[in-house]
Each structure stands twice: as structure tokens, then as C-alpha cells.
# Entry
Amino acid sequence: TPSSIQILRGEMLDFADGLRHWPDGLLLIRNGRIEALGHASDLLPQIAPDQLVESFTGLLLPGFIDTHIHYPQTGIIASHGEQLLDWLNRYTFPREMAFANPQLAAEEANFFLDQLARNGTTTAVVYPTVHPVSVDALCNAAQARHQTILTGKVMMDRFAPPELLDTPDSAYHDSKALIERWHGQGRLKYVLTPRFAPTSSPEQLTRVGQLRREHPEVYLQTHLSENLKEVAWVKELYPKAKDYLDVYDHYGLLGERSLFGHCIHLSDREWQQMAASGSVIAFCPTSNLFLGSGLFDLERCHREQIRLSLATDVGGGTSFSLLTTLGEAYKVARLQGADLNPQQAFYQITLGNARALGLEQQIGSLEPGKYADLVLLDTAATPLLNKRCQLAETLEEKLFALMFLGGEQAIAATWVAGQRLYARKTV
Ligand code: GUN
Ligand code: ZN
# Structure
């Protein structure tokens, strides 16, 4: 196939070296990857006169990265009442049962990836359900979009409806087959996914540890210390463990490719072990507030130098938008006397999250060689956002306003590997 070149012209920024800004930038994309980036005045002389240059209005950024989200919970987002454990039993588990059906799973996977695109999210780390077909459905849909999706079969062998349970053995064999089928296929990555300590027996966690040793190339994700009742339950179920994190450590599940969702109620020892092991936290503010789980200690996370990522956690989280998620993260920081400035904020959902996944060579900024995963933000998307941005004196002020007034409406277009997956309809 002949190589394809696309050229985009307009205002661009990324966070590769602090805030980098091209008020009139030119981005050259060849075969889905960024080939060059610079000021239009510098690069235009090198462009053949017959080459099409697509001009846009708005702010072009690297696509957003979501490090913790549940695709089967799309349909139960915003379900009233209950904290974590009751919410799981009342809403989440009944819905997840439907994903045994491959046709339903395929439809939901496509709807889910469309939701990511219309929110400017180009990469996500995703929980499916316990059913291998739910993984196949998501991976097939992601493949068709040439998208980086990290996912892997949920493992749970107790304390859920029987339709959602696997066994230590079936979890091992099914995960192994899925790793072979999907890890490294196109841009896909496999993630070992024991749901959380309560729903995995010691025998199952032993098998997860075995998978991890046999496949050091794959990731691992789970939940950690989200809710006080959950923490007390883990203490009952694993009485010999020092604490919640020690359960996972006992089975060899910590490390640089391990992502732990929430981490709200950690002990001093757990904070230190998170740091020492190089494990990554997924901070999910809309979920933590919605489920009344608690306030994540962002300041402590920085102080302990723990690797941080930011995530939506839909359907415990209430928005697919990482802009909205940043706004809620800011409020959580404020409540604790801490800050989250716009530059740190937009760094986090782009290059910061890419680094948390060890994928900074491929995604997270507009640097040449990376995939052309892009989002176009419209600072005039609504009358109010427009008014606020008109009065803004700096780019940082506009970015900050987008965190509170932007949301889904501010996403004008989204590209994955140079292909436009979403363009907002303008009436
Ligand atoms: N802990 C175990 N499972 C889940 C889940 O699906 N969502 C959240 N927020 N926490 C969990
Ligand atoms: Zn979750």
C-alpha cells in the first residue's frame, strides 16, 4: 500500500517538556504516526505545493488516556444509592451477567469505544467481565480502530453470583489462552485482572502469581483499599496478611506493570510498599465521590513519590470525560489543602498516564515517532465556556476552564493512529 501523509494546521500543545505550545503549528502524519511537528512558518516551505493541508480551529492535544474503566458498566452508570459492596451486588453483577452473550458484548464494546472517542480518550485500561467472550468482543472492536486498549478477563471465584464465577484452574487456562490470542496483536496489551481480593480465593491468587511469572510482559490490574467495609472484609478473609496490599504482595502481584485502583485508605506501610514496588495508583475521583468511598490523598502520593495515574472508573465513576475527571480531582485536592494546576492536570491525562503505563515511547505527546492519537478541543463549545475563555488572559486559564466547563461537549474531534474516529456534529 502507498504511504499516506496527512498534514494538520492550527493551534497545538502538549506536555512533553512542561507546556509546549505552537499557536500556528503544523503536524505531519505518515501512516498513522507523527513524522514532524513545528511552527507552520518553519515547516510550510518544505511542503509540496500540491499537498493537502487541513486547517482546524480549536486546540489540538495528544489524546487522553484512561487507566481504569469498566466497559460492561456503561449501561449502569449513574445508578442511585449504595456504597461499593451493595452497589456491586445490586447493579454491577446483574449487568455483567449479560456479557456471556457474544453479540451483546460486541454491541456494548462498540458503544463503549464510541463513548471514549466522543470524550477525547484514545487509550484505556479496561475491565471486561469474567467471560472470555467479553475480552474477544472488546479486542476485536479495538483492533478495527487500530487503538491501544489494555484489557484482560476478570478473575473471580467467590462472593459473586454463580454465573459470574470462574475457578482457579479455568481462570488460569482462559487467561493464558487470551494472552496468546491478544497480547501484542496490533496495539493491544493484556492485563491480568483479579477483580479484588474478596472475590479471589487464595488458590486463585496463587494461579494469578503463576501467570505473572510465566508472562512478565503482561500487565496486572485490581482494586485496592477503596471502601472501609471492603478493607475490613479483606482483613477477615486474609487474617494472616499484614494489610490489604500485603495480600497482593504475598502472591507476587506488585510491580511496575501493576495498576491499583483507588488506594484511599492505605496504612503507612502500604504507602511505602506502593512506592518501593514501583506500582501505579489509579486515582478515580468521580467514582470515589459517587460511591462515598473517600478522598484520595494526592499530596501524600506525591510526597511518597508513587507512580500516579488518573482514571474515570465508569460505571462507579460518573463521567467518561477526563476533562470532567480533572475538575473533580482538583476539588478533591482543594478539600485537602492541596492544588492541581492546569499544567499538571493536562500532563497527567496525556504523558503522565502514558508514563504510568510505560507507553511513553508510543503515546502521550506530539513527539515524532508516536502514534497520531489526537483530540481537538473547542473552547467555544458552549456560550459559558466561550465567555470564560474569551476573558482568559493565558492558555493555562483556558485549560483550567475546560476542566469544569468542558466535558463531552468540548471535544470537537478525535483521531486514533491518524484516523478520525469522531467528529462532533455542528448544526
Ligand atoms: N471493586 C471491585 N469491583 C469493583 C468495581 O467494579 N468498581 C469499583 N469501583 N470497585 C470495585
Ligand atoms: Zn474499578
The longest strand covers residues 20-30. The chain is about 40% helix and 20% strand.
